[in-house]
Amino acid sequence: MKKFLTMRERQIFELLVDNYDTEEIATKLNISSKTVRNHISNVIQKLGVKGRSQAILELIKMAQITL
Known about the structure:
The protein has 67 residues and is mainly alpha-helical. It has four helices and no strands.
């Protein structure tokens, strides 16, 4: 399957699945929380969904991330 997410987007969504919040992800990846939110927004736009939860469900269905 074609890669849909960038490496950073995948890292962020895998951390979201692991129940990390925006601030924790920013700290863990050594980036700003604004950058984390930008990556999440980009993925939500790519997928055409309404929020993080829907994005996670779609990415799991597409086998882009795993639980």
